[in-house]
Amino acid sequence: MSTVKRLLCIAASIPMISAHPPIPTRGNSFDWDSTRYLLAFGDSYTYVQGTHGYPNFSFIGDQLNFAYDAKTLLTNKIVQNQTGTAEGGPNWVEFLTKCGLQEGLTSPLHCERQLWDFAFAGADISVEHTPLHHNYTISLVNQIAQYKQYGHPVLSPKVNPTETLIAIWIGINDINDSAKYPVHFPTFYNDLMATLFDSVHVLYALGYRSYLFMNLPPLDRTPGNQATPTPSPNATQVSWFNGALQHHADGFAAANHDANVLVYDAHSVLSDIMDHPARYGVVNTTDFCAGYDQPDIEWNYEAYGCPSPVDTYFWFNSGHLTSHVHEKMVDDLERALKRWK
């Protein structure tokens, strides 16, 4: 039966606990505890480095090297080091699956909950709406097309769709790249979501039935946006984008009665961390450590003018969250997923 699962976050006074129980649904077939596989798509908030990926951008391949064979995929390993994600350490899908957390190389095949990550750093939804950041960037639409053509035939004998969660976090680049467009933004964001869900239907046709969508973080509160009276994107744009995502997720679930559609309110959770940083071990929400990308930053942070370690900051750099913040968000996300038994 149709299930639209809104994973709503917390009231501001209680850290990391969902504010309200999910709205009752007519079906309840999703079980996080029995989920053995996570297929991830998105941008730099989600990408992990692979031994067969484009350095600093992907787990496997790029737009100029689109095809891969079974051996390449199945021997690929997640790289965990300072540059293995865009966060200086593990990101949310690694914390969620506990796959690839260890320093060094990890095969998804060796994880209890396997992480197959096809996100590409710098991705937007589609060139139909915004240009590629680089000629090798794989857009969200093309990530899914690539997976359909090359990934699914390899993984389908091994990855049972009934034990699989599709995770999609996309839109950070879209809203940043288009923030100054001379368009009616509610309509533009609706068009973006229509394109996104056309690709979600591709995954649905492959047999996948459980979907997790992450809404946008408070991008109006990046260090740069906090320093200006005219943030871009602004809070209204972020709200419109997130509203369009929810609307299309509702529509997708209504049209596909056997689909589990989970929309997680990452925006509210991350906003709560910014509003109450001490509760989460965060001391700086307005700036980032200038030496974040230096090889000795973990222990030599003071040499770069940073009064405390990088993992005490909310922002890793001008637009990414620290690994610590990813971990704190996942504390709540996993509890929310477990409620859907």
Automatic annotation (TrEMBL):
The keyword Phosphoprotein does not apply. One of its GO terms (molecular function) is hydrolase activity, acting on ester bonds. Pfam families: Lipase_GDSL. The keyword Coiled coil does not apply. SUPFAM superfamilies: SGNH hydrolase. Residues 1-19 form the signal peptide. Keywords: Hydrolase, Signal. This is Lysophospholipase A. It comes from Aspergillus nanangensis.
